[in-house]
Amino acid sequence: MYNDLPQINFTHPNIIFVQYPFPKVRVQEIEDLDYVLKYYSEEYAEKMMDKGKKIHYGCKIAREAGCNYMMGIDSDDLSSNKIAAFVNKYEGSNKAGWRITKGFIYAEGSLILIKQYNIQNINGGTHIIRYDLITIPDFSSNLFWNYNLFEAHGYTYNRIRDFHYELLDDYPYRGLIYIVHKNNYSNILKLTKAVTFKNIVKKIIRGKLVSVRIRKEFNLYNLERKTN
Fold first, then answer.
1. Which sign does the torsion angle of CA 220, 4, 127, 61 carry?
2. CB neighbour burial string for 62-97, b if at least 16 within 10 angstroms, e if fewer
């Protein structure tokens, strides 16, 4: 999570880079730290606080630009290129939003995707939420609770239901590829690559070959550079 703008030499009408204007919050500055440390380490709490404030600041900018639905996506999430058109079909319906429950898990360089059900329980980039259900706090506040809506994983659905009395619909298609790597907090890379009977059966039953269609839909391509 960086504050600097990316050093790139291209532009695109659908991409707007926003420079985050606030300093990083150190763990000792989190106002509800005692509560947070019941669930997270200090290191992770600090990272998630920084990430959560940036996501909410992005939501603020998006709303000012006229966006009605917000979705928080990490660099290890690849969303389907069909989602925007799907959401736009419901313009004016005032739906609360959607949660993505079906997706894939993918390890870099693999030729197989693993179908994942209830992916919202392990990934934070799985909720599409109507703007008014996202509380934009005073950014001088350092309450962790104010910024963790998109990182609450499966609890995000319950939070919208319990505090706003509205329900997110389930997105009907596989909407996300979750790329596993060594920095996933859930240690999912180790679990995915472990050579166990369970994993072998899982790959046979839930495996799906990476096709040209999937690569195009999710913009999936290898990041590792080949060297001579």
1. negative
2. beeeeebbbbbebebbbbbeebeeebeeeeeeebbb
In one-letter notation, the amino acid at residue 16 is: I
pLDDT at 74: 87
- 228 pLDDT band, cuts 50/70/90, is very low
Amino acid 91: pLDDT = 87
Judging by DSSP bridges, how do beta strands 69-71 and 127-130 pair with one another?
antiparallel
Where residue 163 falls among pLDDT bands split at 50, 70, 90? very high
In 67-225, the DSSP E strands lie at 69-71, 77-79, 97-99, 102-107, 112-117, 127-130, 169-170, 176-180, 207-209
Q: How far apart are CA 200 and CA 205, in angstroms?
A: 9
For 198, the enclosing helix (H) or strand (E) is helix 197-206
Phi, psi of 92 (to 5 degrees): 90, -5
CA distance 177 to 2: 23
Higher-scoring residue by pLDDT: 198, 9: 9
Written as six digits, the tokens of 28 are 């000792």
Q: If you average pLDDT over residues 69-88, what whole number do you get?
A: 94
